[in-house]
Amino acid sequence: MKFAVVVSMSPSGSTDHVGQVIAASLKSKGVEVVSVDLAKQSGLESDVLERLGNDRSCLFVGSPVYFSRVIPPVLEFIASLPLATGGHAVPFVTWGGASSGIALHDLGVALQERGYGVIGAAKVLAEHSMMWRFENPLGENHPDETDDRLVTDLVERVVDKFSAASPVPALPLEMLAYQPPQAFTEMSKVVFAKAKTNMPAKQVDEEQCTQCGVCAEECPVGAITLAPYPEFADNCICCFKCLRICPEDAFTNDLSMLDTRIRERARTMDEHPKTEMFM
Ligand SMILES: Cc1cc2nc3c(=O)[nH]c(=O)nc-3n(C[C@H](O)[C@H](O)[C@H](O)COP(=O)(O)O)c2cc1C
Ligand code: SF4
Ligand code: SF4
């Protein structure tokens, strides 16, 4: 492998952390790397695209797991890729300890449809990004050093695969369909736009809001306009970043019901291993 692109969206930073571990590991193996944050740019420059989708390059694509699935901006990015012949990809997800769902499988299917065979994949436990206000959030202190080491090892093995065979053989996507069959079927029916409606609507206390605009600047999908207080467009992915970063703590949402719901889901799913590499 001579060239790699590491693309992700990461509203609370864990997926970005994994992307950085991947990039560092690639560079240590002598691979040239371009990293792309989908919150800052929605696609790839044409010169980068021209160097992807061949037997010397690899696309690493990361998403957090939301409602057991991939977040829409990451799927939209993949759908926007020109069709490749013989491309290679490594999808990766971070999840908050409730269920990693079928997000890796979603990514694998989407990548394959654009001509990118999946030659490795990673699911990595991370702190649950809906639980920052609660004590002992699920996935606390993850990704940790052990998670990072597993990711580094995966990347090194993926790079070595390029020296062993060209093109690198793709993994069967069934490998990423690791949920029990009934859960897999239920998760396949999740529609992101509908799942979002079960989340508490964002409420801003206009007495506390100083109209500073920080939430609008930092929203990863540009869904906030100040008119003159924050208003939220339909493309909101419900990441809660605006709630987390508001310097005035002006969002008044009570999220306590989510704590119980998420922990119950984690107990029911009881997913193991928490961090896993697929080769
Ligand atoms: C709206 C929303 C839905 C989520 N759904 C799930 C889920 O289904 N299962 C899970 O384990 N974690 C879930 N999480 C937690 C995130 O997957 C996890 O914290 C992830 O690491 C966040 O990535 P980021 O730090 O890159 O934003 C959800 C978080 C949010 C905000
Ligand atoms: S970050 Fe908070 S204070 Fe600033 S505009 Fe948004 S809601 Fe208002
Ligand atoms: S409006 Fe808030 S919750 Fe919605 S995507 Fe933007 S930052 Fe995330």
Automatic annotation (TrEMBL):
Q: Which residues form the 4Fe-4S ferredoxin-type domain?
A: 200-229, 233-256
Could you tell me which SUPFAM superfamilies the record lists for this protein?
A: 4Fe-4S ferredoxins (SSF54862), Flavoproteins (SSF52218)
Q: Which InterPro entries match?
A: 4Fe4S_Fe-S-bd, 4Fe4S_Fe_S_CS, EFR1-like, Fe-S_Ferredoxin, Flavoprotein-like_sf
Cite the entry's keywords alphabetically: 4Fe-4S, Iron, Iron-sulfur, Metal-binding
Answer yes or no on keyword Lipid metabolism: no
Q: Which GO terms describe its molecular function?
A: 4 iron, 4 sulfur cluster binding; metal ion binding
Q: Give the protein name, as stated in the record.
A: 4Fe-4S binding domain-containing protein
Species: Desulfofustis glycolicus DSM 9705
